[in-house]
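Thread title: Can someone regenerate the structure for this chain?

I was given the following input by a collaborator and told the matching structure tokens would be attached. They weren't. Posting the sequence so someone can regenerate them.
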Amino acid sequence: MVLYAFRYSDGRLFILDQTKLPEKAQYMEITGAAQTAEAIKSMRVRGAPAIGICAAYGLCAEARKNGGDREKLIKAAQGLKGVRPTAKNLSWAVGRMLGALDMPGSLIENLEREAEAIRREDEEANRKIGEYLLSLLPENGAIMTYCNAGALATSKYGTALSPVYLGLERGRRFKVYACETRPFLQGARITAYELNAAGADVIVICDNNAANVLRYEKIDAVITGCDRVAANGDCVNKVGTFGLSVLAKEFGIPFYVAAPASSIDMSAGCGGEIEIEMRGSEEMEFFCGRRIVPEGVKVLNPAFDMTPAENITAIVTESGAVSPKRLKSCV
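Best answer:
Regenerated them for you:
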């Protein structure tokens, strides 16, 4: 089964509502920037590359709705930039769309051309990342991943999961251990869903079972995605990634971060300079519609954490796999 996080066709944008997975694969139409912002904030669409691309297409939908009013589009674009502040791809893609407003010719056509270029570039970057990761992995090995950095977080293939998809195309089958990823359960709900649909061998584990699996199972590599990479190689990704990097280092297992160049922020000197998004308490207070945290008890719910460069074996971009210390060669 072919799954896609979004589709833009004949001036209409549709996204897969990922809050409903795995029970239901339901697509919804996005008709403008305000609805795009809501879909990103509520994580109906998520994954750094995907939210950037959907923001670009959302501005196309907005342009068609408002008749190509330039001032309204600029205001809408500025509003989209800060919806989720941690992922670099969102502000990067919106910046490119703002640049397209100054191109000669039809405003709507220019926006749609730029959005399609962003999508196409992402797909190609993901394929190249997958090629480089395949070269680092045994023929039919086992990997552990965290959150969801697959096809449903990007235009195609994914970043961390790209070698799994390319491997399937070439008869190489990897065993994938997917951490459930509390509290939003992107690993259990989304990674497992898309890999199972693709025919991959996927095993879901509780987050607190990761150490045990890394100790006793033959794991060849831990591969994660990344929402923003600092100039020194520190990587900010879904909260829990840092802990997994510590475990991988303890057990001598390579820890690879898959990130397109659009996720690299050379203006951030280190991970500590990157804003960490805080999510609402309700994501932790309730589970399957049932309250699990007593009323009146405080919760701490950051969406991301920072993995220091020294815990990372290599950052894999479309330009190759490099040590975090040599990151500048990829930009």
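Residues 107-136 form the longest helix (30 residues).
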